[in-house]
Amino acid sequence: MSPARSRRWPKVLGVAVAVVVVLGIAGVLLLDRILLSQVRKQTDRLSQQLGRPVAVESVKTRLLGGVGVRIAGVSVGAGEGEDRPLATLDRAEVEVNLLGALLSAGKRVTVREAVVDGLRVNVIRFPDGTTNLERVAKRLEETAAKEPEPQAPRGEEKPADLSAVRVDRAAVENARIAFLDRSVKGAEELYVDDLDVEVRDLRAGRPLEVVLKAAVLAKAQNLELRVKAAPLPPTLVPTPEQLTLKVQPIDLGPLAPFVPGEAGFRGGRFQADLAVALGAAVPGGSGRTTVKGGFRADQLAFAGQEGGKKLDASLDADLDADAEKGDLRIGKLELTAGPVGLTGHGAATGLRGDAPRVEGLEIVSRGLDLAALTAYYPPLGKQLGHNVVAGPIGLSLKGSGGQAAQSLELRVDLGPVHLAIPRQLAKAAGAPMALVARADLAQQGGVVRFDASADLAGVDLRPGGSVAKKPGDPMSARAAGTYRKAGAEQQVELTRLDLDLLGDALAGKAKVALGGTKERPTTRFDAELSGQKLDLDRLLIPAPEPAPAPPKGAEASKPLDPKAFAGLSGTASVRLGLLRMKQQDLRDVVLKVKVVEDAVTLEEARLVAFGGNVSAAGTAVKLAHPEDPFKIDVTMKGVEGEQMLALFSKRKVLGGKLDAALQLTGKGTSLDPIKQSATGSLTGDLRDGAFFGKDLVAAVAAPIASKLPFAGGRVTEGGSTSLGKQLGFAFQIANGVAKLTRPITVKTGDNALSFDGGVRLDGTLQMPTTLELGPEVIAKITGGRAKMSAPIPVTFNLSGPAWSPRLDGLALDAAVQAIAKQAATSAAGKLLGDKAGAAGADLDKQKAQAEQKARDEAQKRKQQLEEEARKKLKGLFGR
């Protein structure tokens, strides 16, 4: 290389480097402008939402030493009538290891640092008692109400996997919250100052610790809160395990005006030195649970306190528990809140093992009277609402024992308590209501024997609108059994269950096994209940009339969640000598139900009732899968139709002895979907049947008599229609309609009825009917003037509710003419006698023609009615 060239290349390299640097600087400046433009678009949108100006002064990027973004001069301005901005921020800075993210193809994203510095928040209280924070919250609610609701995601959303993200440090530094009371002239400005929040090494698989420190109304930090979480899952959603709170004594009175008015807080002092390890006490947690230390709140003042009674509350505890082993140690437990206290001491170990031991365990309440506590803490009254709980609740848990016997006893005595829970229950002070439960722990093989009893004699359950129990009526439950853990499975056996329901005694027993894995738990059960008598008419309050159906298009109720039934299986059986229900006595009731997750099948379902036998064995439904078909299979032998239908309706429709078989399939678990989707059949025989909806013969004969030109007799209204000695029927059910597979004919004396069409599942009839009005009835309504040689047909559509139907389309003209012709012929015959001759023959011909015309008209009208009924039945659900 020549000397000239050797001197030239450093210059060229320098120029190239300078160009790259200039281009880099220009690129960064351009990127800053682009980012600032985008940020300001977002701040404009946020300004509209908050109703106050939002501004950002600058956005700067950094490429050397890691990609970083620094935002400075952020402010959320003052609203109308405010003299301070809501918040300001000196800087917010984020630094990301971009090179590592690129080299790992996005599988590792490291945020080296994310810092918010110099945050200032101003909380202003106005003369009307509201604050600027409340104004912002109200504005956000109004804005959200105007925005369209987001579409629900299709299917179940999987939690986001954030295992690629790592944050080395995130912090809020040197923050301040100022409190300004504009309702008091010259009020001193208050601060929560030197507020710091820090999180380090946030990533999946590592434990999380959040540290918050602040100086509350003080020059130095006097509050420290530490929250530790278990190693984070890929979603980075923490499960808190430990909480430590240290608060030096703070006078909260100056901050009281800024607490929301509904809390009614007026002041008090607070201090704390509390360390809590939650362990297995929280879902997803594990390990021991400990509580050490406590807190003290003195002279807490609230609006509405009776007689100036200020509230003192404190906790001093030394607790240690292990849920997995069944250990509990109470070194000290003293919890007080005004007149209420809870104290405890003692220990219990190995409750879930083979050798449990109890040493002087005792937890006892003192003065647990919510009404009395309300005098000290009025917000409790608002939380109780219209519920009344007045009087001392007795609560105690005691355990003791030696080598031969280890026992625990829980007592809850609500006898002295006056209860009034609207639409649920009521109880006078002094009326009995108690729960006692005992456990004998000293058993071989880890078996725990237990017994429990509940006495509700003093409770009035009538306010709930379901159970007709009044004070003094007996109602109690007693249970005894065992608990044991066999490997990963927990087994509970109820060897005895005694129920007293207003004097009706029921006895039963059951077994439950809880097992499986954490991901797929299982519950197996086997239960049975029996009794001589159960009077539901006495036990239950009659249900009110059903509410009107929701308007078309209204949101349907959500089906049950299949997850709630996952792993559930077993059988349950009920045997009752007598079941009284809706004034009907059902005897020898046997019910056996098989459950496999949400699939419920009646393996046995039989009873003696309504003068016959009923069975529903084979009926099956899936409770959480309304789209899967259900199955109803019912057979009836020798059942009194009137009694059976009285179980479903007070209206009389049908009488007689009934043998029938009902088979239905369909979709849905509520009435409307079932009515629309049900398909199947109903077949059987009705003996000595009667239709109580209307006397059809009288309903037709009466208007005929009124149209005849001469006076006659009347057909007495019987109120029902005889359906003959034996009536076979067959209905095909589809789309909510039961249609006759073929017409059915009923002989009633010399009259005959022929029915076609069908009935809706709500009891609405659409049945084209032909009544062959017999000579005997015609002779009666004509006073013997017309003596027909054959019945006269009359057609109509039997429609409307089965208990009060209408005769639509009743055409009588042809029948009236035929009867009138016959009456005229008979009258002429009597006048002419043997001289009738050709005139008589002509009258006979006219009579025959009139009768034929009546039959032709009836047949034509019948066809029209059948077509109309078919269209109405077909169009019931738009199908």
Question: What can you see in these coordinates?
Answer:
By secondary structure, the chain is of the alpha+beta class. 20% of the residues lie in helices and 46% in strands. The protein contains 12 helices and 44 strands. The strands form 2 sheets. It has a 40-stranded mixed β-sheet that branches. The protein has a 4-stranded antiparallel β-sheet with strand order 16-19-20-23. Helix 6 links the parallel strand 27 and strand 28.
DSSP, total strands:
44
Query: What is the average per-residue confidence, as pLDDT, rounded to a whole number?
Result: 82
Number of helices: 12
Q: Outline the low-pLDDT stretches.
A: 10-32, 834-839, 875-879
Distance between the termini: 97 Å
* Beta-strand fraction estimate: over 45%
- Radius of gyration from the alpha-carbon trace, in angstroms: 42 Å
Global morphology: elongated
Q: What's the structural blueprint in terms of helices and strands?
A:
Elements: H1 3-50, E1 54-62, E2 67-76, E3 87-96, H2 98-103, E4 109-125, H3 132-146, E5 165-181, E6 190-203, E7 208-216, E8 223-229, E9 240-251, E10 265-277, E11 289-302, E12 311-322, E13 327-337, E14 340-349, E15 357-366, H4 370-376, H5 379-384, E16 388-390, E17 394-401, E18 406-413, E19 418-421, E20 425-427, E21 434-440, E22 448-455, E23 459-460, E24 475-486, E25 489-501, E26 504-516, E27 521-535, H6 536-539, E28 568-581, E29 584-596, E30 599-609, E31 612-615, E32 620-622, E33 630-640, H7 641-646, E34 654-666, H8 671-677, E35 679-691, H9 696-707, E36 721-722, E37 726-734, E38 737-740, E39 744-748, E40 751-755, E41 758-760, E42 764-773, H10 775-781, E43 792-801, E44 806-808, H11 813-832, H12 837-874
Parallel strand pairs: 4-5, 27-28
Antiparallel strand pairs: 1-2, 2-3, 3-4, 5-6, 6-7, 7-8, 8-9, 9-10, 10-11, 11-12, 12-13, 13-14, 14-15, 15-17, 16-19, 17-18, 18-21, 19-20, 20-23, 21-22, 22-24, 24-25, 25-26, 26-27, 28-29, 29-30, 30-31, 30-32, 31-33, 33-34, 34-35, 35-36, 35-37, 37-38, 38-41, 39-40, 40-42, 41-42, 42-43, 43-44
Helix pairs in contact: 11-12
